[in-house]
Amino acid sequence: MKKIAIIGGTGGQGSGLALRWARAGHEIFIGSREKNKACTSADNLKTICIDTACSLLEIEKTDVEAVKEKVPEAKISGFDNLEATKRADIVVISVPYSHLIPTIASIKEGLTEGKIIVSVVVPLSTAVGGKATTIISPWEGSAAEVIQSLVPENVQVISAFQNVSADRLSNLEKDVDCDIIVCGGSKDARKIIMELAKDIPGARAIDGGPLQNARLIEPITALLIGMNIRYKVKEGMGIRFTYLPE
Q: Keyword DNA repair, does the record have it (predicted)?
């Protein structure tokens, strides 16, 4: 079991990851600038987990004893961003690019040695009033590298989960058909996050190498957004790499 803070956990991508990892048995701390908002989101996510489990097991929610016996309680709680960060071993950053720098500044105190940061951030042009189908190029090269430039050296930064659909993550009754490219940090740190990717049914984790490869991976999100629009795929497309050795 991992202790995972999701900063931006009230948004679509963060909520979807929280649901999947809570179902896998991990302890989730939803972070928000406003604690009350985080607590409300955490309660809603727990309700979704219970409702889905009851549906899959064909248990009526009114049968309280059966629910208690067969449906595990999701470990999801809400805190302000700093407190969520302090409680976690893994800190997932899932905020709009325009909020990235102030968000990192607000949690820096909690980024102690040995913690792993996972960047789900994509520098979409919406941050400067542009379209979601294009990106801007940070001076550092990628959003993940912006984070690396701001955090202590003893905190490892990983880039992952940008290209998996938030809607498909949130639908617990279906598997996610998508590859998850994990890059950055040490090989051991990548392995930890790749195991988290495998906890999402249907997802496959791929070692994407050093963090600079986030410069290639993050723009895929803008490409997928444009393709979703053209092909009218409301729930969102995924990506798969073929002929990959097992």
A: no
CB 163 within 8 A of CB 220: yes
Tokens for 184, please give them.
Answer: 């950055």
Confidence of residue 57 (pLDDT cuts 50, 70, 90): confident
The 10s digit of each residue's pLDDT in 201-238 is 999 999 999 999 999 999 999 999 999 999 999 999 99
Round to whole Å and give the CA distance between 152 and 197. 25
For 71, what's the count of Cα atoms within 13 Å in the CB-facing half-sphere?
Answer: 25
Backbone angles phi, psi at 231, to 5 degrees: -95, 0
Name the residue ranges covered by the structural domains of the chain: 3-231
- Partners of 205 in the β-ladder: 180
Token pair recorded at residue 227: 């393709």
Q: Which helix (H) or strand (E) holds 44?
A: helix 35-57
Whole-model pTM: value is: 0.95
Q: Of the candidates 164, 173, 182, which has an alpha carbon nearest to the alpha carbon of residue 12?
A: 164
Confidence of residue 37 (pLDDT cuts 50, 70, 90): very high
The Cα–Cα gap between 102 and 46 comes to 29
Instruction: For strands 116-119 and 156-159, give the pairing.
Output: parallel
Single-letter code of the amino acid located at 116: I
Helices then strands, counting H and E runs in the chain, come out as: 10, 8
CATH architecture of 3-231: 3-Layer(aba) Sandwich (3.40)
- Phi, psi for 13 (deg, rounded to 5): -65, -45
